[in-house]
């Protein structure tokens, strides 16, 4: 069983997945910071200095006596849900843009590799036809 476990861990797919999870976690923290520090203050400003995560519908306000909360507030905190939806949409947009850029770069590099391969590898027939073309061009030049 230990041997099978070691073989499983040593496979490339598991290692690739682990690297992907670590990078995804780091990417998420960057996007979370982008949303919290840049996007949400702008949204709050547009909403009149209201933070999305603070938005709620109060069913029953808290009862406070002598500075102590006797009964806590009963509220529907929908703002945090809105905040998480905005975070998700921005993360999805960022992932989409990154994947699109990677695919575009792959297409460019693949095309360059194909072009190089097609230039380097010429069949004997193509070489013979090019030689005949060159000889006919020289023949036409000598007649003039």
Describe the structure.
Strand 2 (63-65) and strand 3 (68-71) form a beta hairpin. The longest helix is centred in the last third of the chain and has 43 residues, at 78-120. The strands form two sheets. Strands 1-4 form a two-stranded antiparallel ribbon. It has a two-stranded antiparallel sheet with strand order 2-3. The mean pLDDT is 82. 74% of the residues lie in helices and 10% in strands. It is mainly alpha-helical and 144 residues long.
Classified in CATH, the superfamily is: Large-conductance mechanosensitive channel, MscL, domain 1
CATH fold category name: Non-ribosomal Peptide Synthetase Peptidyl Carrier Protein, Chain A
Helix content: over 70%
Mean pLDDT value: 82
CATH architectural type? Orthogonal Bundle
Domains (count): 1
Unreliable segments of 5+ consecutive residues: none
C-alpha termini separation: 85 Å
Structural class: mainly alpha
Major sheet summary line: 2 strands, antiparallel
Shape: elongated
Question: What is the ordering of alpha helices and beta strands?
Answer: HHEEEEHH
Report the C-alpha radius of gyration, rounded: 32 Å
The count of β-strands is: 4
% residues in beta strands: 5-15%
Strand arrangement within the widest β-sheet reads 1-4
Using brief descriptors, characterize the structure shown:
two-stranded antiparallel ribbon, Non-ribosomal Peptide Synthetase Peptidyl Carrier Protein, Chain A, elongated, 144 residues, 4 helices
